[in-house]
Amino acid sequence: MSVDTMIAKMESILGTAGRPNVVTNWYADRQGEYYRRAPWCDMTITWAAFTSGNYNAVNGGDDDAYTVWHAGEFKDRGQWHTGTEGIRRGDIVFFDWDGSNSIAAIDHVGIVTDVNGRDILTIEGNTDDRVARRVRHADSIVGYGRPAYPAAATGTNTYTVKAGDTLSKIGKTVGVRWQDIATLNGLRTPYAINPGDVLRLPGRASVPPPPAPEVPVPAEVRLSNLKCGASNDDVKDFQRALKSKGYDPGPIDGVYGDRTKAACTRFQKAQGWTGSGADGIPGAQTVAALGLRLVGTSTPPPASTGEPAHVYTRTTYGGKKVNQRTKVMLETAAVDFGRSLTLLQGSYNAGGVAASAGTHDGGGVVDISVSGMSSAQRNELVQCLRRAGLAAWLRVPPAFDYHIHAVAIGDRELSSAAKSQIAQWAVDRDGLAARGPDPAPDPYPAWTRQYR
């Protein structure tokens, strides 16, 4: 086994959300019922290590769910490193959100997938209650443990760079991560390559394809059984579904009481529904959104589309105010692009830059610096942002200084001006007053089609 198999296993569950889930159920079956709904960041590392054959290297042969003890075990084995100096792909990285270097203060854990300057790229479990890629920096990192992974075999294939190639494009063409190509060839930011360069390619055979995710069969329920005062097995399935989404209905007892109704109301409001759509009594939409199926329907509701959750808690990215949903999109784009993004302007910025015409007054809108980037890099960043679900346009002189304007598709807190730009996006326009054609390719994810 190897660092590649460990990371491939983590990648195989990207997007897993809520609890219980495949990780917490596995851990609870081994260690007790409490863990089925407990914090699960370190359980995720343990699960991936065990199922990828790296259990001894990563965990020393013991199950770990408590980050402080896990870091202490690395220290006891002489594998602990404080801070981030020398950190690399495959290291198990531990965080303290208060910024200390104390093992006793550790809050969270993930695995390093790449290092790009000061950016530490990770996969983490239980980050916003899901498995996701993140970009981290030294100010929140206590240190890291370095497992004694067996060395992975590498291939000797090569690729000759052609005009117009980027590392990202080459990686997609040959089916390997562009970051691995950069590491193997000693390339560092700004990752300059030239036509005629011969690049060595990482071996692909050493990394097994991730297993196909298990698709659970949704429970069938009858709407007539889901009403206040009802007591039946359909209510029990409904309560389980609410709890798996993080909305506590009280005991899973099959009784549709006040706590179950209140949990249903909270879930409905989180979907953006109002009035009778958020009255605590489920209809077909509520049932489908919870992953259940109505008796008599021929197909289950569609699986998650990959759309970021509608979480609008205020936070920051690069020192600029955004909401949590936008931050997730920006982090996704940053990982795709291979470096963190610098914001010129964030969201909720009423009275900001006059040229923005009110688009930043609400949520979901940012301006991104392209300073120091080549034309190809600017265009590639637009594509990365679009793949993450942001309507993104490169703004150019003479009307603007070079920057990228991006609007989070589907954001429920957009200003009226930003909503007008999304209406332009829907018909492939450029989001400006003259409503010119969109000049860039359109690689938006499938979930954005619902907003066109």
Ranges with pLDDT <50 over ≥5 residues? 152-156, 204-216, 298-305
How are helices and strands ordered from N to C?
Answer: HHHHHEEEEEEEHHEEHHHEEEHEEHEEH
CATH top level label of the largest domain: Alpha Beta
Overall pLDDT, averaged? 84
Task: Count structural domains.
Answer: 4
Strand content: 15-25%
Number of strands: 16
Report the span from N to C terminus.
45 Å
Helix and strand content put the structural class at: alpha+beta
Strand order of the largest sheet: 1-6-2-3-4-5
Radius of gyration: 24 Å
CATH architecture of the largest domain: Alpha-Beta Complex
In short:
The protein has about 450 residues and is α+β, with helices and mostly antiparallel strands.
